[in-house]
Design goal:
The protein has five helices and eight strands, in the order βαββαββαβαββα. It has about 160 residues and is α/β, with parallel strands linked by helices. Bound molecules: flavin mononucleotide (FMN).
Length: about 160
């Protein structure tokens, strides 16, 4: 069995697209995080909702994506960069599992801010995991660049497990 899991949250589809490409190239299993109440698709309203949740460290209840991670050795974790940090549903996921001994590979999409604090925060939440170099995309990353990155972390077209 392929022991790779690709977990992501995406509101507008950018992070989902990157997750799909990673799954395609690694043959991993995709898992979308869906919060009980989704955010507004209107940018300014979403910023207000997100700012409120992040300031409280709020972890929304997930109605999908919270199954066991026991079967997986490597977990790609994807989020949009929201106010320099990860989307709250991703924090919910991190807080509700034990990542001891697993390899974690972050990925994010953003509007210019790169990872922001996302990698540092994942590292804090998963102190007993090996965190590998992630990838941050503002939409211009080609499949070949993703292949090169995946190869550097032990995957890639020829390294499928
Ligand atoms: C509420 C909100 C906050 C955002 N904050 C940032 C930010 O701080 N820095 C940044 O570079 N992009 C920011 N963005 C842009 C998103 O990271 C970017 O559009 C991302 O690709 C969206 O991912 P998605 O399509 O998977 O939802 C923000 C977008 C939203 C909706």
């Amino acid at each position: 069995m392929n022991k790779t899991l690709i977990v992501y949250y995406s509101l507008f589809g950018n992070t989902e697209e990157l997750a799909f490409e990673i799954a395609e190239q690694t043959d991993g299993t995709l898992r979308e995080l869906i919060p009980e109440e989704n955010y507004s698709f209107e940018y300014n309203t979403a910023v207000k909702e997100v700012r409120n949740q992040i300031s409280r460290g709020f972890c929304p209840k997930l109605i999908s994506g919270n199954e066991s991670i026991d079967d997986y050795e490597t977990i790609f974790i994807g989020s949009p960069n929201w106010l320099k940090t990860m989307a709250p549903p991703v924090l919910s996921f991190l807080k509700s599992h034990d990542f001891m001994g697993k390899k974690i590979i972050p990925f994010c999409t953003h509007g210019g801010g790169g990872f922001g604090r996302i990698t540092d925060e994942i590292t804090e939440e998963c102190p007993k995991s090996k965190i590998l170099t992630g990838i941050a995309s503002s939409g211009s990353i080609s499949p070949e660049e993703i292949t090169a990155w995946l190869t550097s972390v032990g995957y890639g077209e020829k390294a499928k497990k």
